[in-house]
C-alpha cells in the first residue's frame, strides 16, 4: 500500500549492530521531533519493528518502527566537520541545532572553496591555460595582465546600462517573509551580510515587500532569490528579443579556436534606478532590504542585460553573447587574440567583470548553451544525456512532459524525433487516460538509445548549398538537412520534422472515389505538407535543392514554383495526367475539382 501512494518508497532492513538515527521528541519540546543518534540496533522483533539502544535518554531501550529509523553513515574524513562527537552526543535542543548547523555550514564552505576566485587564477594561470603551448600561454597571460581591472573577485557596477521597473498605477505589493529552518536562516543571514558589505543591497523603508527563498545549486550551496512573481504580474513587459540558442551555435561553425567567458554575477553588475530600488524591496525574518543592483527573478532582467551586451558587442565579429554567456571564435590564433583584446577593452570601458572560474581560453571545443561546439561539429553534453538516460519510466502525464522537455532539447540530433515519440505525445491528449503500453516503452527506450550513441552534427557553412530530404507518413513528418563536406560526403546538419498534417475534410457522400486518386492525393498532401512545414522552419539554412521521394510531387512543385499557388499547381498537373490518360482520367479530374470546391465552401462557410 505504501508503494502505491509513494513511488519512492523503499524497503529498509537492519540487522543487530547497525547504527541508525532515530526520530524522537526533542527534550523539553514534546510537540517537536528530530533525528537523534547514532544509536545501535539490539535486535529485530519483526519485519518492521526493532529494539534500539538509546543511552542517555529516559528509556535505555525502546521499540521503534522502521519508519522512525534511517541508516547512519559514519564520516571517514575527520577534517570535514569540526567534531564527530557533536554528531553522537545530542541531548539538548541547543546541541542538536548547533551540531546540525556546524555540519551543514562545513559542507557549504567545503563546496564553496572548490571554486577558485579570480585573484587565485590570475596568480596561477596554469589552471586555465595548461592546454596551450608555452608561447601561447605567455601571450594570453600578458593579455590578462593588461586587463586585470575586469578580473576582480567582486562584481562591479557597469556604466553601460541600468534597469528600471515600470508598474504604472499599481498599488504597492506587500508580502510577509517565508519561514525558514535554523540552518537555512543562518545561511540567509550570511548572504545578507555579504551583500551588504559588497554594496549589493541596502536597508529599506519601501512600501513594497517580496519574500525570499533559498534555491539549491549543483555545487551544494544556495542561491538567495527573491520571489518577485506578484511584482512581475504588474510590471510592464520589455519585449527586447533573446537570441535563439541554435543561431548562436550555428555561427561558431568550423572555428579552430573557441573561448567562452561568463560575467561574474552578471545581473548584479547592472545598477537599479531609484524607483526600481523601492519596488525591489524584500523581507527577511530579520528586516526589510532593497536591491541596489538588478536582482535575479525580475521580469525584464534578461531583456535589460541582453540589450546592454548586444549594444556593446554587436559590431565585434567572431563574438556571440547569450545574456551573460559570451563566446569568441576564429580560425587563426592571431585573429583570436585580436578579438579577445577588443572584447577585454570593451568590458573594461563598460566596467564589467569576468568570472574566470567559469571561463575557457582558446580551446578546440567548449561546452556552450547545452552543446559541445568547435572544429565544425556539434554534440550534446554527455552529462545532460546521462540525466536523460537515467530518467525513470514515467508514471503520469506530468513526468512524460518532463522527459519530452529534456529529450526535446536535443531533438535535432534524433532522426524522425516526432515519429519516435508519437506514442508518448499521444498520452498527453486531454481525453486519453494514462496507460503505459509496449509502444510507449519502446519509444522511451529508443530516444535514450539514440542520444546515448553519441550523435554528431556537422556545423553549417552558409557559403555552401544545403540539401533537404523530407518525407511524411500517418505517424509523423521527417526531415533532414545535409551539406556536402570537403570530401564530397553529405553530412547531417540537423534533423527536423513534426506531427502528421491534419486530415482534410471528407468529400460529399455519394461521389465515387477511386483508389488511385485517393492514394495519390493523400501521398501528395502529406509530402507537400511536410515540405512546406520544413521549408518554413529551415528557410534560414537551406538553398534550393530538395531531394524528392515522390516523382508526382516533384513535378507538381515545378508548377507550384511558377504559379505560386498549390491548388493551381495541382490542377495543372492533373490536367497533364488527364491528357495522357484519356477520358477515364477526365472523370477523376472532374471529381477532384468538385472536391476542391467543397473544401473552399467549407472554409468560407465556417470561417
TrEMBL record:
The keyword Transmembrane applies. InterPro entries: BET1_SNARE (IPR039899), DNA/RNA_pol_sf (IPR043502), Integrase_p58-like_C (IPR054465), Retrovirus_Pol_polyprotein (IPR050951), Rev_trsase/Diguanyl_cyclase (IPR043128), RT_dom (IPR000477), RT_RNaseH_2 (IPR041577), T_SNARE_dom (IPR000727). PROSITE patterns: RT_POL (PS50878), T_SNARE (PS50192). Its main location: membrane. One of its GO terms (cellular component) is endomembrane system. The chain crosses the membrane at residues 585-604. Residues 514-541 form a coiled coil. It is found in: Endomembrane system. The keyword Lipoprotein does not apply. It is a single-pass type IV membrane protein. Keywords: Coiled coil, Membrane, Multifunctional enzyme, Transmembrane, Transmembrane helix. GO terms for molecular function: catalytic activity. Residues 196-373 form the Reverse transcriptase domain. Residues 515-577 form the T-SNARE coiled-coil homology domain. This is Reverse transcriptase domain-containing protein. It comes from Pinctada imbricata (Atlantic pearl-oyster). The lineage of its organism: Eukaryota, Metazoa, Spiralia, Lophotrochozoa, Mollusca.
Amino acid at each position: 500500500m505504501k508503494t502505491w501512494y509513494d513511488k519512492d518508497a523503499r524497503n529498509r532492513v537492519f540487522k543487530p549492530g547497525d547504527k541508525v538515527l532515530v526520530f524522537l521528541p526533542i527534550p523539553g519540546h514534546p510537540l517537536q521531533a528530530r533525528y537523534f543518534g547514532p544509536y545501535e540496533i539490539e535486535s529485530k522483533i519483526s519485519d518492521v519493528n526493532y529494539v534500539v539502544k538509546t543511552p542517555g535518554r529516559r528509556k535505555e531501550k525502546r521499540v521503534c518502527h522502521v519508519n522512525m529509523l534511517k541508516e547512519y553513515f559514519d564520516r571517514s574524513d575527520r577534517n570535514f566537520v569540526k567534531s564527530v562527537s557533536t554528531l553522537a552526543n545530542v541531548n539538548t535542543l541547543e546541541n542538536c541545532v548547533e551540531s546540525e548547523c556546524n555540519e551543514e555550514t562545513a559542507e557549504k564552505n567545503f563546496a564553496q572553496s572548490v571554486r577558485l576566485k579570480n585573484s587565485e587564477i590570475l596568480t596561477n594561470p596554469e589552471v586555465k591555460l595548461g592546454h596551450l603551448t608555452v608561447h601561447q600561454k605567455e601571450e594570453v597571460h600578458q593579455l590578462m595582465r593588461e586587463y586585470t581591472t575586469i578580473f576582480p573577485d567582486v562584481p562591479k557596477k557597469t556604466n553601460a546600462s541600468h534597469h528600471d521597473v515600470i508598474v504604472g498605477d499599481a498599488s504597492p505589493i506587500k508580502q510577509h517573509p517565508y519561514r525558514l529552518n535554523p540552518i537555512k536562516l543562518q545561511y540567509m543571514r550570511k548572504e545578507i551580510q555579504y551583500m551588504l558589505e559588497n554594496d549589493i543591497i541596502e536597508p529599506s523603508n519601501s512600501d513594497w515587500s517580496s519574500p525570499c527563498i533559498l534555491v539549491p545549486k549543483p555545487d551544494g550551496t544556495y542561491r538567495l532569490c527573491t520571489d518577485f512573481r506578484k511584482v512581475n504580474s504588474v510590471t510592464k513587459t520589455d519585449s527586447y528579443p533573446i537570441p535563439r540558442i541554435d543561431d548562436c551555435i550555428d555561427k561558431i561553425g568550423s572555428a579552430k579556436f573557441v573561448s567562452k567567458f561568463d560575467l561574474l554575477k552578471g545581473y548584479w553588475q547592472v545598477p537599479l534606478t531609484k524607483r526600481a530600488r523601492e519596488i525591489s524591496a524584500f523581507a527577511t525574518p530579520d528586516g526589510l532590504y532593497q536591491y541596489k543592483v538588478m536582482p535575479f527573478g525580475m521580469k525584464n532582467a534578461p531583456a535589460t542585460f541582453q540589450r546592454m551586451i548586444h549594444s556593446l558587442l554587436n559590431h565585434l565579429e567572431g563574438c556571440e553573447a547569450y545574456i551573460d554567456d559570451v563566446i569568441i571564435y576564429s580560425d587563426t590564433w592571431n585573429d583570436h587574440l585580436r578579438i579577445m583584446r577588443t572584447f577585454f577593452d570593451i568590458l573594461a570601458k563598460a566596467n564589467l567583470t569576468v568570472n574566470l572560474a567559469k571561463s575557457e581560453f582558446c580551446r578546440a571545443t567548449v561546452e556552450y548553451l547545452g552543446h559541445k561546439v568547435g572544429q565544425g561539429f556539434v554534440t550534446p553534453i554527455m552529462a545532460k544525456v546521462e540525466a536523460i538516460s537515467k530518467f525513470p519510466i514515467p508514471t503520469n502525464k506530468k513526468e512524460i512532459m518532463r522527459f519530452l522537455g529534456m529529450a526535446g532539447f536535443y531533438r535535432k540530433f534524433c532522426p524522425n524525433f516526432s515519429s519516435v515519440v508519437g506514442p508518448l505525445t499521444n498520452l498527453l491528449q486531454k481525453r486519453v487516460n494514462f496507460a503505459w503500453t509496449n509502444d510507449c516503452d519502446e519509444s522511451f527506450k529508443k530516444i535514450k538509445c539514440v542520444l546515448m550513441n553519441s550523435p554528431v552534427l556537422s556545423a553549417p557553412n552558409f557559403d555552401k548549398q544545403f540539401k533537404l530530404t523530407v518525407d511524411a507518413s500517418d505517424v509523423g513528418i521527417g526531415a533532414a538537412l545535409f551539406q556536402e563536406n570537403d570530401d564530397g560526403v553529405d553530412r547531417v546538419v540537423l534533423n527536423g520534422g513534426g506531427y502528421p498534417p491534419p486530415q482534410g475534410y471528407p468529400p460529399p457522400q455519394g461521389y465515387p472515389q477511386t483508389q488511385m486518386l485517393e492514394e495519390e492525393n493523400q501521398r501528395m498532401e502529406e509530402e507537400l505538407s511536410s515540405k512546406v512545414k520544413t521549408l518554413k522552419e529551415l528557410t534560414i539554412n537551406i538553398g534550393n535543392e530538395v531531394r524528392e521521394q515522390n516523382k508526382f510531387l516533384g513535378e507538381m512543385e515545378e508548377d507550384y514554383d511558377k504559379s505560386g499557388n498549390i491548388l493551381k499547381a495541382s490542377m495543372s498537373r492533373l490536367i497533364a495526367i488527364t491528357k495522357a490518360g484519356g477520358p477515364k482520367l477526365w472523370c477523376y479530374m472532374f471529381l477532384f475539382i468538385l472536391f476542391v470546391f467543397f473544401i473552399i465552401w467549407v472554409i468560407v462557410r465556417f470561417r
